[in-house]
Specification:
There is one protein chain. By secondary structure, the chain is an all-alpha fold. It has a single domain, classed as Chorismate mutase (Chorismate Mutase Domain, subunit A, Up-down Bundle), CATH 1.20.59.10. It is built from three helices and no strands. Helix 1 packs across helix 3 and helix 2 runs antiparallel to helix 3. The chain starts with a helix and ends with a helix. Bound molecules: prephenic acid. Keywords: Isomerase. InterPro entries: Chorismate_II_sf, Chorismate_mutase-related, CM_dom_sf, CM_II_prokaryot. Pfam families: CM_2 (PF01817). GO terms for molecular function: chorismate mutase activity.
Length: 90
């Protein structure tokens, strides 16, 4: 049991490190959007991203609904960060 939980901790560390890295990139995206007068929210991109991930990772453990819910949370946080980043630098 301890070994299995250690493996779960390792997965969680990887998830959080990947998210932290993703949000650092999102901050760079927000600067690009500010400089090119692009809207923060890009609905088509968000739909395409969820479709790609559902297609690629959907299966026994991960449903399309799960991908949608998870990325709803991740992308709303990304949008908040972009708005904050743009707001701070204006
Ligand atoms: O691709 C972008 O334009 C982003 O800003 C990144 C991101 C995302 O988190 O993937 C965030 C907000 C947009 O609505 C679309 C996608």
């Amino acid at each position: 049991m301890d070994e299995l939980r250690a493996q779960i901790n390792e997965c969680d560390d990887q998830i959080m490190q990947a998210l932290d890295h993703r949000f650092q990139i999102v901050r760079q995206v927000s600067r690009y959007k500010r400089d090119h007068q692009m809207p923060v929210r890009q609905n088509k991109r968000m739909e395409a991203l969820v479709a790609r991930l559902s297609q690629q990772y959907g299966g026994q453990n991960i449903s399309a609904e799960f991908v949608e819910q998870l990325y709803q949370v991740i992308m709303e946080h990304a949008i908040d960060l972009e708005e904050q980043t743009i707001g701070q630098e204006d």
